[in-house]
């Protein structure tokens, strides 16, 4: 953690602070000196971070380094704030203006000297901890012990194996297949059973018969290329003692050549268990004939998907799935309740009930189940089981009784294994991972929000050549690829839409965040308040409100004076807000002046957001989404560092004081305006100097030609416009081509759909139209990337217009809703080739729907709701074998009865796995 914090602060100094302090003489020199001292220490920090378990002294030293790096950042930020508060000049020039008071220069100079002195003292103490030595020179036994704990011996077969039969057969088949993949990889998070599965494959009968010789090596995090290659060669050729001595004298390249030749001449299976990085593979690949015709194969296990792909881009990748409830119980019972069949039935049932509840915390992770079951197997009484039940996470994490020494030999929990994944992260990913601790348990985290928060915190470098949003998403993808984060939902373009943490990974995340003083969590409800005293200065604060009543307000505490991010999580309730006391909120906005992130969603802050919001001049992320406010103050114009501003309130209208309120926000990247804005807000936008603007949602315009104001917004990716002109005049069109636009939403309920806007966005993936949809022009076919289409507000469409839809080459999701739908919906053979989801909602006069054989060959889900004139589902549904889910809602009783077993239309849908029929409407009279 300290390495991550120091690296983060050094990046900020290099990119933002040092260049702007160059005119401040001695202060600049002091900051540079502190920077140099931290850089000298940086190379030892990763080693020190990983050795904190060895010594309390090392742990304290690491904590001091972390805190002094934070203090340096705090000192500079506080100085910036004092200077900015004295004048109205641009903050971008805050260091060089004539308004800088000598007292501020003297103060920061004094603070930096103290901090530099502390860093020097900590640097001098390095020798006391042997951190200045390499692991090899000090004969590091700690890492050797870590490596030995993780070695898997292929001859030792786990006695309790559940749920691996299918995976074993799949992997064995790929290994022995003629002209099959050179590398077969097993990828997944720690404790998922990758090594156990590899052993099953290694000893599979067909595999043993197919290959001539075998080698199993455990790579681990400290991969020594020469030693590993020698070990593989020795196991494959079974050398004599004389040959072993000869091999021991060879150089790495000579060993690699012999190994390469051996695999060319014989059918070899090499298992590389637990390989962590591309560097590890690079140190070994010279020993494998990857580009030669050979029947030798590699079976590889890894926690990093990138490693598997790097080893062989054409290889076969297999991800084991967590055990389901039945499999989890079967494994648990084999270990924890073996030989207890003859005990009292009542005791057995009580243990079964407790065991079933405890298994829910394992979430199907085999290691966690094995650890838990191993503990309980040594406990006989119900009271002992109940004790484990009350502290189940601690028992699973430690793998021993809570009163025993954590360092004792014997049973071990899952914590140390999952920590290896965390320790292996680069510093920037550690910060991104720890930030997930902000979110409540079982929360599906919106990726769009998460990546914006990372950017606001400064975790994503603004100096990157790539667009910051892309870099941020790549960080998330890498955490997924390293099995630290799990995917929730994918969007229509197959990008990750939501994510979450496995319960045990979340437990580790919170533990590491608290250990490193990364954030402070307060759980609060109307009846119970769980508060922990902050451990030193708090820089990130998250408050979980369990009931949507009165917001928890922070009292004055010197530890909160340096908070950079404040996030409130409120239960979503359509009937309630979380109410703020206006005085308390104003106090908060006055005191938390260093805030970069403020999330006040689903709250009521009074009729107007307090004017004190303008004090937060460092703010980069502000969201009052789904809140109850009616106006924002003019002081919001002071927030010139804002990157993300979300004003999408739940209902109603928000008054924005004047057209120039956003004009100084040149760093703005994402702006979400209230949905109910009138045409007079057309020009209230940010001045168009915000050239990095990525998202504009709910901007009101009078005609599509008004978008010419956006001429400088060449990086725009998401645009939502509302057209308010009530006339039927012909559109002039816009002169801009939005070539980077990916998502477009157009509300034109008073005018015909402005197709000129849509056709000016040739690369969009998502399109939402709401208004008077009277035609679907043939030109829509130029939207080659369109994957999701939402159409709402039909009127007088013709049959030939509808035919355009089935020709869209990439369409995966289609939502058609609301309006008079008199046209015939004919899905022709080969039409809608990639459509996976179709929703038909509230379409009046929709009677004729025909699906030809061979249409919609990829359809998985179909939703039909309130289409009262539709008499039956089309006959062609019976040919769509991919259809897995059919939902019927608010349809007439007669329509629904035809679909029931024995009904006239049952044969059309009998192959569908899930058919849900709800809210059946009565038939029309007569």
From TrEMBL:
Residues 170-337 form the NB-ARC domain. Residues 588-889 form the Disease resistance R13L4/SHOC-2-like LRR domain. Residues 5-89 form the Disease resistance N-terminal domain. Residues 439-509 form the Disease resistance protein winged helix domain. Coiled coil: none annotated. GO terms for biological process: defense response; response to other organism. GO terms for molecular function: ADP binding. Keywords: Nucleotide-binding, Plant defense, Repeat. InterPro entries: Apaf_helical, Disease_R_plants, LRR_dom_sf, LRR_R13L4/SHOC2-like, NB-ARC, P-loop_NTPase, RX-like_CC, Rx_N. The keyword Repressor does not apply. It holds the Pfam family LRR_14. This is Disease resistance protein At1g50180. It comes from Prunus persica.
């Amino acid at each position: 953690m300290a390495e991550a914090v120091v690296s983060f602060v050094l990046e900020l100094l290099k990119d933002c602070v040092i260049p702007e302090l160059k005119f401040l003489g001695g202060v600049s020199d002091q900051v540079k000196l502190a920077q140099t001292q931290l850089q000298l220490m940086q190379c030892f920090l990763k080693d020190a971070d990983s050795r904190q378990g060895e010594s309390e002294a090392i742990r304290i030293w690491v904590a001091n380094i972390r805190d002094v790096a934070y203090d340096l950042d705090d000192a500079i930020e506080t100085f910036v704030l004092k200077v900015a508060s004295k004048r109205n000049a641009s903050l971008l020039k805050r260091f060089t203006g004539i308004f800088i008071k000598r007292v501020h220069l003297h103060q920061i100079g004094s603070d930096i000297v103290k901090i530099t002195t502390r860093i020097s003292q900590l640097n001098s103490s390095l020798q006391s901890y042997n951190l200045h030595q390499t692991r090899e020179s000090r004969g590091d036994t700690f890492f050797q012990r870590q490596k030995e704990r993780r070695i898997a011996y292929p001859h030792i077969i786990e006695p309790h194996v559940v749920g691996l039969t299918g995976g074993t057969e799949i992997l064995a088949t790929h290994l022995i297949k003629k002209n099959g993949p050179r590398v077969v990889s097993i990828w997944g998070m720690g404790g998922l059973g990758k090594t156990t599965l590899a052993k099953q494959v290694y000893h599979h009968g067909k595999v043993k018969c197919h290959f001539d010789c075998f080698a199993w090596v455990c790579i681990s995090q400290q991969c020594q290329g020469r030693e590993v290659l020698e070990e593989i060669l020795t196991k494959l050729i079974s050398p004599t003692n004389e040959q072993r001595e000869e091999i021991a004298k060879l150089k790495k390249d000579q060993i690699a050549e012999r190994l390469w030749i051996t695999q060319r001449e014989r059918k070899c299976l090499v298992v590389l268990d637990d390989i962590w990085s591309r560097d590890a593979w690079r140190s070994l690949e010279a020993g494998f004939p990857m580009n030669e015709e050979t029947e030798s194969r590699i079976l590889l296990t890894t926690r990093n998907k990138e490693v598997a792909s790097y080893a062989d881009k054409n290889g076969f990748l297999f991800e084991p799935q967590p055990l389901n409830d039945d499999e989890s119980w079967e494994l648990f019972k084999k270990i924890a309740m073996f030989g207890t069949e003859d005990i009292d039935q009542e005791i057995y049932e009580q243990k079964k009930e407790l065991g079933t509840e405890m298994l829910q915390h394992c979430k199907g992770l085999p290691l966690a189940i094995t650890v838990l079951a191993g503990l309980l197997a040594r406990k006989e009484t119900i009271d002992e089981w109940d004790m484990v039940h009350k502290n189940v996470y601690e028992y699973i994490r430690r793998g021993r009784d809570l009163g025993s020494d954590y360092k004792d030999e014997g049973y071990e929990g899952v914590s140390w294994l999952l920590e290896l994944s965390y320790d292996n992260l680069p510093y920037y990913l550690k910060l991104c991972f720890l930030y997930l601790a902000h979110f409540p348990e079982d929360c599906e985290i919106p990726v769009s929000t998460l990546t914006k928060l990372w950017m606001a915190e400064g975790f994503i470098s603004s100096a990157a050549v790539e667009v910051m949003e892309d870099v941020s998403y790549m960080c998330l993808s890498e955490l997924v690829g390293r099995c630290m984060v799990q995917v929730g939902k994918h969007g229509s373009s197959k990008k990750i839409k939501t994510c979450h943490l496995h319960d045990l990974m979340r437990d580790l995340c919170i533990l590491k965040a608290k250990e490193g003083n990364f954030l402070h969590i307060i759980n609060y409800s109307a009846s119970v308040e769980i508060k922990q005293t902050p451990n030193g200065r708090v820089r990130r604060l998250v408050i979980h409100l369990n009931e949507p009543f009165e917001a928890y307000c922070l009292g004055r505490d010197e530890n909160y004076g340096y908070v950079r991010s404040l996030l409130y999580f409120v239960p979503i309730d359509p009937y309630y807000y979380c109410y703020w006391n206006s005085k308390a909120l104003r106090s908060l906005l006055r005191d938390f002046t260093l805030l970069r992130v403020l999330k006040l969603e689903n709250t009521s802050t009074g009729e107007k957001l307090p004017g004190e919001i303008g004090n937060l001049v460092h703010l980069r992320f502000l969201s009052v989404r789904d809140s109850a406010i009616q106006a924002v103050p003019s002081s919001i114009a002071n927030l010139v560092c804002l990157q993300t501003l979300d004003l999408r309130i739940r209902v109603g209208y928000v008054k924005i004081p004047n057209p120039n309120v956003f004009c100084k926000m040149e760093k703005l990247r994402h702006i979400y305006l209230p949905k109910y804005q009138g045409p007079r807000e057309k020009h209230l936008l940010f001045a168009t100097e915000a050239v990095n603007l990525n998202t504009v949602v709910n901007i009101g315009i009078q005609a599509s030609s008004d978008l010419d104001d956006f001429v400088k917004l060449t990086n725009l990716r998401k645009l939502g416009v509302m057209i308010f002109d009530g006339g039927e005049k012909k559109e002039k069109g816009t002169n801009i081509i939005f070539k980077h636009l990916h998502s477009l939403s157009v509300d034109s309920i008073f005018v015909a759909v402005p197709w000129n806007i849509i056709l000016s966005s040739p690369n969009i993936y998502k399109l939402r139209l709401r208004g008077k949809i009277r035609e679907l022009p043939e030109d829509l076919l130029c939207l080659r990337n369109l994957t999701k289409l939402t159409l709402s507000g039909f009127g007088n469409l013709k049959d030939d217009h509808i035919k355009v839809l089935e020709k869209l080459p990439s369409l995966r999701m289609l939502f058609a809703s609301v309006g008079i739908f008199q046209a015939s919906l004919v899905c022709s053979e080969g039409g809608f080739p990639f459509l996976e989801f179709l929703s038909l909602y509230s379409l009046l006069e929709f009677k004729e729907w025909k699906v030809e054989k061979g249409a919609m060959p990829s359809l998985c889900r179909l939703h039909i709701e309130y289409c009262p004139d539709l008499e039956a589902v089309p006959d062609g549904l019976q040919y769509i074998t991919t259809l897995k889910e059919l939902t019927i809602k608010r349809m007439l009783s007669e329509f629904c009865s035809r679909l029931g077993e024995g009904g006239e239309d049952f044969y059309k849908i009998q192959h569908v796995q899930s058919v849900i029929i709800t809210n059946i409407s009565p038939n029309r009279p007569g």
